[in-house]
Write a structure and sequence with these properties.
Layout: H1 3-15, E1 18-20, H2 25-28, E2 32-38, H3 39-43, E3 49-55, H4 61-72, H5 78-86, E4 94-100, E5 104-109, E6 112-117, H6 119-124, H7 132-141, E7 145-151, E8 154-162, H8 169-178, E9 182-186, H9 191-201, E10 205-207, H10 215-222, E11 228-233, H11 239-244, E12 247-251, H12 256-261, E13 264-266, H13 272-288
Parallel strand pairs: 2-9, 2-11, 9-10, 11-12, 12-13
Antiparallel strand pairs: 1-13, 3-8, 4-5, 5-6, 6-7, 7-8
Helix pairs in contact: 1-13, 4-5, 7-9, 8-13
The structure holds adenosine-5'-diphosphate and magnesium ion (MG).
């Protein structure tokens, strides 16, 4: 690879909104065999909205939303924002807030311990959902992220939160397939929600219910066949995976930590830029030889 051709390739990439942060990334990208995407904010818009609530007998949707929003007001998670946006402005005060990364949040409201989080986390904590498990399955099958609201030891409400798939996601995945590249999705969300999103997109492999610290291991499993792997992500959770992937690709619309951990930064949130970057890398390296 001559320095001149790399310079030309890097310049052309910048015009396409692809920024190579590390010198060898342009070369490394040509040999990619697997592209693994994070779900939330990468394949989806990252603007989740509350779309449905189911409650246990004796509870109202209003009270569940009020309790949940009181706690989530103290969280910076995108799911928290969706819950707070749907709730009234005046809320009870939450005390002793705890963030349980990749799992949920907890605080005391009106003298009761309120826990909000992933259904699998509620199982671990023995917060029983009973008949609300049916609502959970129904919401997840629609591709919604389902969050359980437990008061004390019981799950009293289920919140369905949906986040639209980016309009160009399907085209990006088809284009990767056309280049002989296999596509995977790694997410902290439930298996059912992940499948509902990944299926229609034609994604080859899904790894769901991954804790933030598990994204690196999930990635290692995907490249077990000795293939070179690119990981595409946007969030704080994604930083370790971005740093450890053969090539880490961060969306410019993502968090600063993600961008700093990446080899390549895409100036827009359009997943088709990943295809542009690989295309450009292949063409640049071909010209050299
Ligand atoms: P992703 O990998 O899809 O970006 P995260 O690792 O941030 O997701 O979170 C994984 C799961 O943990 C979420 O789908 C949700 O069920 C639960 N969770 C995390 N933070 C919160 C929160 N503040 N409120 C409710 N649930 C949460
Ligand atoms: Mg994300």
């Amino acid at each position: 690879a001559t320095p001149t051709s790399i310079m030309v390739g890097t310049g052309r990439a910048a015009e396409l909104g692809v920024l190579f942060r590390k010198g060898d990334a342009l070369q490394a990208l040509q040999g990619v065999g697997v592209v693994a995407f994070d779900k939330t904010g990468t394949l989806t818009e990252g603007r989740p909205r509350l779309t449905d609530i189911a409650v246990a007998p004796g509870w109202t949707k209003e009270r569940i939303l009020e309790l949940a929003a009181s706690v989530e007001r103290l969280s910076e998670h995108p799911l928290a924002r969706a819950i707070v946006e749907a709730a009234p402005e005046t809320l009870p005060t939450a005390e002793g807030f705890t963030n349980l990364a990749g799992r949920g949040v907890r605080a005391t409201v009106d003298g009761q311990v309120v826990t909000i989080g992933a259904p699998r986390f509620m199982d671990e904590e023995r917060h029983r959902a009973g008949p609300l498990n049916a609502d959970t399955a129904l919401f997840a099958a629609k591709g919604c992220t389902v969050v359980h609201v437990a008061v004390g030891q019981r799950v009293c409400g289920v919140l369905a939160i949906s986040d639209e798939v980016k309009p160009t996601a399907k085209a990006a995945i088809s284009a990767l397939h056309a280049q002989g590249i296999s596509v995977a999705m790694i997410t902290g969300d439930s298996k059912a929600a992940a499948e509902a999103i990944a299926g229609p997109l034609g994604i080859d492999q899904i790894t769901a219910e991954v804790l933030p610290e598990g994204k690196v291991a999930a990635m290692e499993a995907l490249r077990a066949g000795g293939q070179r792997l690119a990981f595409v992500g946007d969030g704080i959770n994604d930083a370790p995976a971005l740093a450890r992937a053969d090539i880490g690709i961060a969306l410019g619309t993502g968090t600063d930590v993600a961008i700093e951990s990446a080899d390549v930064v895409l100036m827009t949130g359009d997943p088709r830029s990943v295809v542009n970057a690989i295309d450009l890398s292949r063409r640049t390296m071909r010209n050299i030889r």
